[in-house]
Amino acid sequence: MLSFVLFSLSRAWQGFWRNAVMSLAATATMGLMLLMLAGFWIIQTGLLAGLQFTEQKVEVVGYLQPNAQANQIEVLQSRLEAMPEVASVAYIDRDIALARFRASMTAQGREDLTRYLDSNPLYASLEVKLVDPSNVRAVGDAMRADPNIRNVINIEDLVDRVLTVTNILRTAGTVVLVVVGIIVLFIIVNTIRLAVVARAEEIEIMRLVGASDAFIRWPFVFEGAFVGLLGALLALGVLAAVADPISGFMVDFFRVLPLQFGSLTRDLVVLVLGAGVGLGVLGSWLSVRTYLIR
Description:
This protein has helices at residues 2-18, 20-56, 70-81, 94-107, 136-144, 156-197, 200-208, 213-241, 243-253, 264-292; strands at residues 59-64, 86-92, 125-130, 149-152. By secondary structure, the chain is α+β, with helices and mostly antiparallel strands.
């Protein structure tokens, strides 16, 4: 088995350079298509990170009654934290609320009129972050039912609109990525098929002398893997060359959002190498199969 694999690899390498023009054309096409796929994937990753950040910012704010006691607030906070829909609960006292208001006025370049007041006019509040933004109604109703809550900011309509927009964008991004992947597969399969067509006579001769389907197929499959691997390395080389401009663009574009992209580089390398080798093997398999089923 090992000897057959080594023989197939050797024939695949020889076949790659025997038809150098077609092989290099297929490699260049593979590299360009993988660059396009990687570009759309990077855009999709940024979009999903932005949508996730937006959803994480959804929170329910309930203002407390002025006469609410500390132990009553602690009990309410503990009850809210025990709800499965709640990620965290933060108590904001009146002094913190006033400091936040004054900071926002300063950031907007507006005059702080609260300094003319004799007392702090703001209420203490509980800020509840949600596990899932769709749970805003349940958490809001639970807070309104407590007598220590003066009122709850109604953001249900806003959350519904945000979720509608994010779901549309997430679905559209996924559909675009899948469509691009199908287009890439179609172009690569046809490009590799041209290389196989150029060697149709060779395949026919091997069939006439009694070569098995496996003997004919596997060198072409490995050759497709070579094309995919070289195309992936070409695409990764180009991406490495433009990595700094791309990183700068993404940082500038999402500057207002402290997004977490995770292991973007590792995922991109896995995507490009996996797609390159996988598409090369699949393209060669499908192309040679056309001749073997005749």
